[in-house]
């Protein structure tokens, strides 16, 4: 199940910067990596502000910019050098152990969520911000267009609708009968949309 932005806010309130649980979320959210790749990510993968990693599931190489929020979180830690994601003992976690620990952290933040849901939110964020299929595939290590199109489809529909709704109006810009007197014709004073649809 994908996370929502309010889930991120709730988790961040419970686990502020300076906790290992916050490192966990920020690595997932600002890289879009699967948990198996996220637990392998470390300083050895980063050069000149970019992390390069071959993904475990598909073998695709991804090159990810280390975004400022993630860089800030990692600078404060706690995290390891060869593995940014570590447990309470400072040692690397397997993807299974990390999945379980992350679920516990989510529960303590009042959520029933998983690491994979963060990846879905990351893809949704990118699509909503105008990312193309090619851009999504480059970041998430997909190919063939199917997965990336899943995220861009709804985002594109919303953008296209917002930019084209005015085309529903006729050339004279008159209103349908049920709105006459409420909106007025072109040039007349109009009530706000909120007033009309109360």
What does this protein structure show overall?
The chain is mainly α. The protein has one domain (5-161): hpI Integrase, Chain A. It is built from nine helices and three strands; from the N terminus they run αααβββαααααα. It has a three-stranded antiparallel sheet with strand order 1-2-3. α2 runs antiparallel to α4 (68-76) and α2 (20-31) packs across α6 (115-128). The longest helix is centred in the last third of the chain and has 19 residues, at 146-164.
Count of domain modules: 1
CATH architecture: Orthogonal Bundle
- What is the assigned CATH homologous superfamily? Intergrase catalytic core
CATH class: Mainly Alpha
Report the sheet-strand fraction. Answer: 5-15%
Q: Give me the count of strands.
A: 3
Strand order of the largest sheet: 1-2-3
**Uncertain runs:** none
Largest sheet, if any? 3 strands, antiparallel
Output mean pLDDT: 85
Radius of gyration: 22 Å
Series of secondary-structure elements, N-terminal to C-terminal:
HHHEEEHHHHHH
Describe the global form: globular
Could you tell me how far the N terminus lies from the C terminus, measured between alpha carbons in angstroms?
Answer: 34 Å
């Amino acid at each position: 199940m994908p996370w929502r932005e309010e889930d991120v806010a709730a988790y961040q309130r419970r686990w502020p910067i300076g906790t290992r649980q916050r490192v966990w979320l920020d690595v997932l959210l600002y890289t879009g990596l699967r948990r198996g790749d996220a637990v392998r990510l470390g300083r050895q993968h980063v050069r000149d502000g970019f992390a390069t990693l071959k993904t475990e599931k598909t073998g695709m190489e991804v090159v990810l910019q280390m975004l400022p929020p993630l860089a800030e979180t990692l600078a404060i830690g706690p995290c390891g050098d060869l593995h940014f994601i570590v447990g309470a003992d400072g040692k690397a976690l397997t993807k299974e152990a990390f999945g379980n620990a992350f679920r516990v952290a989510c529960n303590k933040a009042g959520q029933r969520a998983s690491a994979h849901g963060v990846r879905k939110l990351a893809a949704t964020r990118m699509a909503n911000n105008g990312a193309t299929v090619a851009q999504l595939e480059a970041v998430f290590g997909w190919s063939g267009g199917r997965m990336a199109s899943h995220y861009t489809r709804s985002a594109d529909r919303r953008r296209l609708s917002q930019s084209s709704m005015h085309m529903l109006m006729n050339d004279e810009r008159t209103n349908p009968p049920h709105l006459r007197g409420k909106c007025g014709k072109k040039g007349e004073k109009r009530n706000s949309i909120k007033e009309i649809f109360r």
